[in-house]
Design goal:
By secondary structure, the protein is α/β, with parallel strands linked by helices. The protein contains ten helices and six strands, in the order E-H-H-H-H-H-E-H-E-H-H-E-H-E-E-H. The protein starts with a strand and ends with a helix.
Length: 231
């Protein structure tokens, strides 16, 4: 029976891709870099994901993500700008777009008091804390764990070891992580030996090298998963 739920934040509860798009376009405008097309946004998004996955594998440090992703992006699109200045405009702009994935806020709210719910997220401390506050999710979660504060990123075992020491005492089979990222959330759940629910709205192919206990296409399926765990 599940007692604790770990929620990923980006693209599971909050729509990060929309925030990314709006913030990048606003940063271009602020720095007089011309029009940022939707195609440029797609290019950046792919580069960004690549660098975060490098971080998750321990190949680079987080500070390198912020710099290297924009160095590569600017080179690809042929723009001349300070990558760290562009990164700062972009990072702060993320907070200007708060959009929930499906009815995620209502789902988390409906489960409050029935389960202990924690936000487990990578990302920049100040940005993530601001987004949680603006969205009022900070009032719903029983706790928030951000990699910047912990000092380790998902999917590392160290990240989850820290979290497990901070939450209510429970068995690992009483914990469920819900997230969209196979490399961060689900791999992290595997590393922590807790139950894993993959949010897969785009019906990506299920890999063979990772344990997925539940797969959902809509967040509304969460309640069915939790009921199944009660049997």
């Amino acid at each position: 029976m599940i007692k604790v739920i770990f929620w990923d934040l980006d693209n599971t509860v909050l729509d990060f891709l929309l925030a990314e798009k709006n913030s990048l376009k606003a940063a271009f405008k602020a720095l007089n870099l011309g029009q940022c097309t939707d195609e440029m946004v797609k290019t950046y998004s792919s580069i960004n994901v690549k660098h975060w996955e490098m971080l998750e594998r321990g190949e680079i440090k987080k500070k390198d993500v912020y710099r290297l992703r924009f160095i590569e992006f600017l080179k690809v699109i042929g723009k001349d700008a300070d990558p760290l200045e562009l990164n700062e405009y972009y990072e702060r702009g993320i907070c200007d777009t708060i959009s929930f994935i499906e009815n995620s806020y209502d789902i988390v709210a409906s489960l409050r008091g029935k389960y202990k719910q924690y936000c487990v997220t990578n990302g920049r401390k100040d940005v993530q804390l601001d987004r949680l506050k603006i969205s009022r999710l900070d009032k719903l979660f029983d706790g928030v764990f951000i990699s910047d504060i912990i000092g380790y990123e998902k999917p590392s075992k160290e990240f989850f070891d820290y979290v497990l020491k901070q939450i209510i005492p429970c068995e690992k089979d009483e914990i469920l992580i819900i997230g969209d990222s196979l490399t961060s959330d689900i791999r992290g759940g595997n590393n922590a030996n807790i139950k894993c629910c993959w949010y897969n709205p785009n019906e990506k192919t299920k890999p063979d090298d990772i344990r997925i206990d539940y797969e959902i296409k809509s967040l509304t399926e969460i309640k069915s998963v939790l009921k199944e765990e009660e049997l």
